[in-house]
Amino acid sequence: MEDGTPPQTLGRKCGNCGKESWLALVAEHEGKYSNGEGFRAGLYVCGGCGKPSLATYSYYVDQFSGPMWILSGFVPAPHALPWEDLPDGVREEHCESWNCFHGGQNKAAMLMARTALQHTCRALGAKKGKLAAEIADLEQQGKITPDLRGLADEVRLLGNDVAHPPEDIAVVDPGEAEELLAFLDDFLNTTLVLPEKTRQRIAARKARKEGK
Question: Which fold has domain 90-208?
Answer without folding.
Answer: Four Helix Bundle (Hemerythrin (Met), subunit A) (1.20.120)
